[in-house]
Structures
1.
Amino acid sequence: MNLGIGQNIFHRLDRVLASDLYKPDILHTIYLGLFKYMMDWIEAFVTKHGRLQAFDEHWKALPPYPGFLVPKKAYREVTQWQGKEMRNLGRCIQGVLAVALRQPAGAQAIPFKRALRCVRALVDFNMMAQYRSHTPDTIAYMEEYLDQFHRMKDIFLEFRVTKRTQAKVDKQRNEIRRLRALMRECVATSQRRRMPDDNRDEENEMRNDMVHGLSHFNFIKMHLLSHFCDHIHRFGNILMYSTEIGELAHKTQIKQGWRQLNKNDAACQIVHSYGPQHAIQMRLLNLQSLKNCGPNLSPDVLKHLDRTTSTVWPPVICRRIWKGRRGDVSNIVDFSRISGVSLEIIYRELIRYSRHNLPIDHRLLEDHATLRSLPIELLRQLEVPVLTFQEADVYEIHGARSTVTLHFRNQGSRND
Amino acid sequence: MSDQTNFTNLPLDKKAWAVYFTIGNLPLARRNSPGSMAVLLLPLLPVPPKLSKSSKADRRQRKINADTLQDVFELIFAPLPDVAHVGIPIDCANSKVRLCFPILSAWIADHMENVALHWLKTNTCPKCEVPTNELGTNARSY
């Protein structure tokens, strides 16, 4: 339904199912996705219930622990979050929130409990997703946590208000106020005093209704979680398909190359320059692992080491091809044969040229037999083979041509 | 695996769109460690310039971009179909030659990359056919 079959590049490959190529991704789906959303909700939640101060204080007061980075700033003071920091956050958010929501006042008890359970389910799900091996039990746990998260998430629904929903709510409220103002003019003064309270309650109720009706959790990262368990069942643990190795590879393979190169046609240079480095590193790793084997190496491994892995040809030396006469052209007939222009046309053009351009005493005889006997030279264009950048045996042919009386690129003469 | 990155030390908005490849039978710890040389850069894909949402010319440009991307991938995948069935002998590190069957089995990318590669709408799942208004529910029947 959602796939345009002709368009998907993966549909043309054999033994490949395009929908199975997708792999769940903890970094983007949980750390930079749901955790980020969840922190927005939590922030709004604690603000609404007046616990923001406590939340920030406890956040800053976290004690150090091996493998855990102590946050230096309060949550709201950090402007940008990295995947690593989000992972850190996942470890401590439950505790901080639980402490911040301590001793609820009467009406707050139920929302606090629900919020804590929701956050806890998500954090637990995340922790379980990082397991390196799974049993049916752990997968069942994961599904249960996910169910719980979906059951409890409604507590945060009011913080999923989009601008559009907010605008609608505001519009409706203004409408009601206008109507009420009209009504108040008709009502006696004695009754007016009681009305504002009713109004506010009613307005809040309407706002809640609208917010709950219009807001939703329908964004893609919410849904992608549901594929985690199934994926583990079929393909194994999730860490195996981490996107983080890609980010690491950027650093060594692209960004270093980019810094060292001259930014001319950068893509080609980057792709070419990393290959040799990679080969050498692989060689070093191989040698290292052989060294670890110690003296009991088999002789054919040693023989294999002496052999270069790929055959290297000696570089082909390409001589420069200078401008020169072609040997097989001596008169007009030859020229017509090679260039494919008929004799008649050549004669006609020659005569026209001589009539228009040459002084009278230099004009050609307008007689085919004489013209045919004229000596002809066919010259090659000057061709200079230039080595392709960073290649030993690939040449590009640069054709040079005469600019006659013009200077190079219409500029003054050069003295080099 | 593909991912888009910015060149950081540059004032322009230069971007690189890299495709890496790695082999599936490496152990997890080996592949994820940075010095293991497990991932190798294959090509850099062409990065189209940013387009506005509505204009008609841009929509045509968008189509051209998609077609270009498709052609590039056809080029990249060109050797795959031939060897997926019959296999290809590949040198192994321990002086042996093995018959290998290279098959594309996973594509690790974030959601926006998946959208671009699978030619999806932004708010759809790359794996199943869940309707947009049920994304937030815990529906698993698709």
2.
Amino acid sequence: MPTEEQPPASSTPAYIIRELRSDDDCGQFQVEGTEFGPLKDFLHNHACNLHEIDVSKTYVAAIGRRVIAYVSLCCSQVNFDSPQTELPKIPYRAFPAVKIGQLAVDANFQKQKVGSTLISLAIALAKEHVQPRIGCRLLIVDSHKDAVPFYRGKGFIVVASGKEKKFPVMFLDIGKL
Amino acid sequence: MAIYSSSFGVTSVTKEDATRFHRQVVYGRPSKSAVASLKEGKKLLQSIQTRGFARIKSKSSR
């Protein structure tokens, strides 16, 4: 059986999906543009610590020890105060959720569907591991507005109204998946 | 604006956004893309649980 560090000799360039490790090389991770600097800073300075103290869990795409993409997940909640409507009443005003806190792909590894793969993992984690054992209805994300089509392509729906928002809130109802 | 959210905290939805959210929760159906994503994710999870990692061949979206 091939090990993580020894890919099959005949393989095309491949990467590994797994949990973040304390000895991972996050230092080479680069983003395009200062706007995404916080995503680089999170990986460089916070992800490992938050992973270890169980505040958020980070899953990475890596080549060897080099992290080329990551997604960080934590518990969250959606409160909603729906005005009186003709809709059937829901006897709760809050839904438990898993939140995609951060998702980023190294500037040198864009357009290879690495981010899409990590979101698929996040959906499966929420659906297969969290929901049956803990109770969780939604997977949510504060999407960058430019990433809305990407998340739509993974089945997420925008909650925000039509007003221009930099980080529209999007959700996926995993209770119905 | 009728949405408030923070990194680790609660997302609060009010007014017309809350109505939209309410409608989705009651009547929404999963899209084919969501189902396909879950299917892909399950395979990854299974591999991670078995071997500690999942190996992905690099692929281009173009």
3.
Amino acid sequence: MLKTGTTHIFVLFEFNLNKSGMARQKNVSQMKPGEVGIVAGFTDDHLSVKLMEMGCLPGAAVRFNFTAPFGDPVCISVSGYELSLRLEEAATISILN
Amino acid sequence: MAAPKRSKIALVGNPNSGKSSLFNHLTGLNQKIGNFPGVTVEKKSGSCTLLDGSVVEIIDFPGIYSIYPRSLDEQIVSEVLLDHHSANTPDKIVVVADATNLKRGLLLLTQVIDVGLPTMLVLNMMDLVAKAGISYDLQLLSKKLGVPVVPINARNGVGLEELKKQLAKPLPVPDKKIFSIWDDAQAPVRELRQKLGVDNDYEAYLFLEQPQSLGFLSGERKNIVDTIRSAHKFFPGKFQGAETIQRYSFIQDLLNEITLKAPTDQLWKKKSSQLDAILTHKVWGYLIFFGILFLIFQAIFAWATVPMDFIDSVFASLSQYIGTALPDGPLTRLLAEGVIPGLGGIIIFVPQIAILFAFISILEESGYMARVVFLMDKLMRKFGLNGKSVVPLMSGVACAIPAIMATRTIDNWKERTITIMVTPLVSCSARLPIFTILIALIVPDQKALGFFNLQGLALMGLYLLGFIAAIGSAWIMKHLIRVKERSYLIMELPTYRIPKWSNVGYTILEKTKAFVLQAGKVIMAIAIILWVLASYGPGDTMSKAQEVVQEQTKNMRLTEQAFADRIAAYKLEHSYAGIVGKAIEPAIKPLGYDWKIGIALITSFAAREVFVGTIATIYSIGSVDGEDDATIKARMKEEVNPETGGARFTPAVGLSLLVFYTFAMQCMSTLAVVYRETHGWKWPLLQLTYMTVLAYVSAFAVFQIFS
């Protein structure tokens, strides 16, 4: 696998993140069933492309639907699609809510 | 004028976009599975007659989300789209998109447009679009994209006339370019176009971006690409995210312009969620899944026996008829004893394979299979597998061949390889005849605790044993195979819907055909080779068989039939197969087997079920309808072990054989498929070795403990 060096974070709401500090930076894996938020960015380059191709776009509203019986994977709704992700993948999607 | 070349039309689209329904509508029963010339990649294609009478070839590609491949399935599409001047290059590309939610479909479309092949867009599910209250300005969409747009409903075929009309028209290469290549990449792209003569910028850019999809380039040309890539310090993947964002911003603007009316009910989907609350529930979810599994097994083992018995009797009488109707000779015997039983040995599995794929196809069409993957992923991952390994492992119960082909959807190399390696341990239907007869021999037909049939329990135990071995081996391999590759499971959970029955029918047909052709070739070839080995021997032993047996049985009063059986047994003993059987006797003796069983082990390497037939011949009961289990069983019971004076098939020997067949890789066709799927001999040979060692050691242990 190729390493691209530093990790790029696609940030749409930059000022928002800086103001509140990293403490309020939440990701999808921390959401509860039924909770909604806005996709703010990604912390993993490689996965971000795949996620965006599947419709998970920065700025899009995301809803955490439910988890599989052992808490992993999880199901989310975004851009009108229902996706299933593993927890570690969900953790790479930063959200605002 | 020369006969016009059939133009090739490629169907490309997202998974669940209804691409397969469209393919089935266009081609009907004129479908075939072949290979792309020069590449060992499977091609699903079919012919379609357009309204003007011209015939075109429609090629159905695996569903993809983007031109950047993540799995082997997806890579096929990229390779074909990048290879512009070969026999594989499609003349027209039809991108099929789910019109109820256009974003993702358009993402793929913009990439295909930029690659620079003649393209058109088909909007599917227009009925659902109407229901959701959406309306688009399709003319504007077509104008903005520079490609024809045809709305259809692939479920009932509405709009297909118009599509066929469009397909008959000449289609130019789209002149729009949607993605503008980064300044950094301009120089290498220009150099590459100059040196290789690539058609356009984006194609050249993808050459740089996708080193893995350039299998069609000659080594020399590939080296040029690699040199340019490193000379300009171009890192594949670095700008993929930015490219996707650029495309989506174009798409968002486009959608804003063409959407006349947005969906009325656009908030979170409700219907699927209610069903999912039950189907992915921690108790009900698993209960329902195991209930469905039970139903499938029930169908494969109980319902399929009716057509299987019928096929069996048809081939048996056909073989007998040919044997008597044609003049006796080597060719007749080859036909009657080699070819026809070989053919029968293939066809007999068709009912089970058809039933299994009927179920799998229904589960996939309805959207439930994605939930099974969702339910099982966490468990499977503990053993080095993937949620998507469930389908191959389930299919393995019928036959490992389609099961191994089904692993292509697993995008992680390590998880896919492990799935391929352990799938043959799941007991396939070919083991069933062996299990049945050996269990009948060593397990009493009694009920335990009043209602459990002991023989049934033993059979279930063997299936469980195979499954546990598969899972256990996977767990070991997880620790042995060291690859630094991230595993992920980003998967769509499609909306539940009623399966389209014609699609189910086409899938059954496709899988059965693939099995008969692929496994069939190997099973057939080996059946013939084994027939030769078992019918011929060195020197004149074969021709003298009659005299020798006559001499031996001088004082016995044998019927003509019994005499002929004795000759057959004598011939087999002195044939090449018999010689090999005797040669391996020292090796299999610790397992409790003699050379007679050795012969059966060798002949059953083609396909396991041959074991029973060989045993029948070797114990001289070949002619008393070799398929009559009761006769074989009675004869096996009588067989004496000359060393002990007791029965040959003691419980220890029976158990040892059962364990051996549960674990052994006794199937050439599976090895051939593994070779094809892993592109080399490394994995099939490793698989053969580990499974044989496992079988040998376990059978040895079982025999030593119980005898």
4.
Amino acid sequence: MTEQNKINKYSKQLQVNDLSLSANTISSSTDLIFSSDATNLIKFENATVPILNLNSNGELTNTFQDSFLVSSNIDNLNVTGNGITFTLTFPVIKYDIGNNFFVDSFTAPAAGLYYFSCSCTFTGLLSGMTSARLNLFTSLQTYNSFTNAFKISTSGSLGSVRNDIITKMDAGDLCNMQLTISGSSLTADVSGASTLRTYFSGHRIA
Amino acid sequence: MKKNSINNISSSIVVDTLQVQNNNITTSSGTIVLKTLNSDQIQFTNGTDILMSMTSSGQFTTPLQPAFLAYANAAVTAVTGNNTEVVINFNTEKFDISNDFSASNLFTAPVTGKYILGTNVTFTNLSSAMTACRLSVVTSNNTFEVLANAYELSNSGTNGSISLNFSCDMDVTDTAQVLFRISNGAADTANITGSADLETYFYGKLLS
């Protein structure tokens, strides 16, 4: 028969039914359940800093999870159009939790799975600029999205191309966005505005 | 330092470096480990509601985490084409955990955090003059937009789609809504399509 509800000074263990407290470990031989009733929170903190909050509605927030949203509020003129690849620039940092975004690239702070979404709006196109590639570059893998740049714009003015992924990254891996428009001269522009038409967002999801 | 003690004065239990006091479980050093064996789960509950669960296989679920998917199941006709911007209605909900999607077109953030939002809008009945369109998601903090030649996205004026998604910050009670316009046509004769197959839809989830 299993002994229960005991304090064992030799094993440095307190056992209450199936729940065992020892050293830094809380364990159970069956389902381990933490419960808070009514409107109370279950919190995880580092000293007094909240790391993870789980409220009674089941809304889970972890304020310091690595994430970012950046955009361009200016036009970058004559940066592609003849096959030259332009690495997109983002002078506006909407937020950068973890401070992982630097010089237009995101650096993974830890190995894991990340979600990225990017959109690039271009303008100043000539009719020969029929090929556009938005390359979402990561250290492990490149993700391409293609379109006919001139055709999806309005007579050469304002067209967008997008790319979204969930990808695996190792700590220190980079991610940035590169646009290549081909077929004519170096006269195509990347459009920026106060609205987010050229933006890059990311979030560590696991 | 006293170890393995129950102190009825401070209402605390100390096991090595693990301390249980009042409503707090803390450690003075090392990592707190929650452990279960075999096929058992680690669960966080409110009464009988499971808020968060981790299976022995490492599958981590939060069944009440706010999330929604709504779509249009019928077309709305002659609403844009001559630069009229419309709020897209998604009159059918596939799911709406915690009931944050309302009035067929508005998501309201239940808590401050980071969210993923995405939408796809399908349109039809375009004239060849309808050479511009703009799909936007307007949140309280930012407006996200994509622009394109609407007619060229379609098949000679029939059935074209445009999409947009991103992660963003929202404060509690901030809202998000989808707007769309087609321009350069002579009149507002273009339709937004809807179907039981999801071709005009809007989704979102609290990420963190």
